[in-house]
Design a protein that fits this description.
single chain; 11-stranded mixed sheet; 33% helix; alpha/beta
């Protein structure tokens, strides 16, 4: 899995090593993510992580969010992850990229990637549990991250059908690095927006399905989101008000958020929304109205990192 954390220069966490903006590598984040996910396939590599691996990577991402980069890097290096600072040429935002060294191996572990905003204190997450399988959700996620300050983009590291059984289906399992990271962010009171895609035949007549998963802490945000999507021309099934398919009630990251009473939004997008560039931009703009609200509100609770 790859994680990217992004923050603005005003009020952002210190990098802890003096390299923020100094040694940043200029990239197009959308292209970077596309290159990363290009090799994902049902028969691709995935190795189930042990508890120690899950705990260590999640703890390190939490430390990175809190501005303790040097400590995070030491922990991540011990688990074969790297951290580098990138400058997204499109948005002008700096991010810390957490990447799995085995991504370049013949048989990658498939534990994902994270992008953390370095210019603003991280306040919310955008979660992509099924990249490639839910085609283009990873690119919509990049758009949302670019549009709102203080975001953390968490991308699963393998195709949903990789691995044995449903072991790589990170939205429905708790023994994954993806779940551990999202749960760590929930522990800090950070709301989450999780993006999915549905087949046109699953919800005929709808462009999107919006829900709050297993909980209701994000009910007001869900209403705002559905209204925003409607304003941008999309027909939305509102799971709290009507019976909708793919409501996300069994989503594990949503259940973790519900247990902590932290807002969680589960958004399903139709193929036409995800795959048509102008429609994807409009959908991302609508979702960014909510993430921007999250970014400008104080986090509910921020637990101090453990030693």
């Amino acid at each position: 899995m790859t994680a990217v954390i992004h923050a603005t220069r005003e009020g952002g966490p210190a990098s802890g090593d003096g390299r923020h903006g100094q040694d940043a590598q200029p990239v197009d984040l959308a292209r970077e993510v596309a290159d990363y996910t290009a090799r994902f396939a049902p028969d691709g590599g995935y190795r189930r992580p042990g508890r120690a691996d899950r705990t260590a990577v999640a703890r390190a991402v939490g430390l990175l969010v809190d501005g303790h980069r040097a400590q995070a890097e030491r922990i991540l290096s011990g688990r074969d992850f790297t951290v580098r600072t990138i400058l997204d040429r499109v948005s002008g935002h700096h991010y810390a990229e957490v990447a799995d060294r085995t991504d370049e191996a013949v048989t990658p572990r498939g534990w994902g990637r994270v992008y953390v905003d370095l210019d603003r204190t991280p306040r919310f997450s955008v979660q992509i549990p099924h990249p490639v399988f839910d085609k283009n959700t990873e690119q919509v996620g990049v758009r949302v991250l670019r549009d709102s300050p203080g975001g953390v983009l968490v991308i699963a590291g393998a195709h949903r059908r990789a691995g044995v059984g449903n072991s790589a289906d990170v939205a429905h399992r708790r023994d994954t690095v993806f779940y551990a990271i999202c749960a760590e962010l929930v522990r800090r009171g950070m709301p989450g927006l999780q993006l999915h895609g549905f087949a046109a035949s699953t919800a005929p007549g709808y462009d999107a399905v919006a829900s709050t998963g297993a909980g209701s802490a994000a009910r007001s945000d869900a209403r705002r989101l559905a209204d925003a999507l409607g304003t941008h021309g999309f027909h939305v099934c509102r799971a709290w008000a009507e019976k909708c398919p793919v409501e996300g009630s069994t989503n594990m990251e949503g259940r973790a958020a519900d247990a902590a009473d932290v807002p969680f939004l589960h958004v399903e997008l139709a193929p036409g929304v995800r795959l048509e560039p102008s429609a994807a931009d409009r959908a991302a703009t609508a979702m960014s109205e909510i993430t921007h609200r999250w970014a400008t509100a104080p986090a509910a609770t921020r637990s101090a990192p453990t030693s």
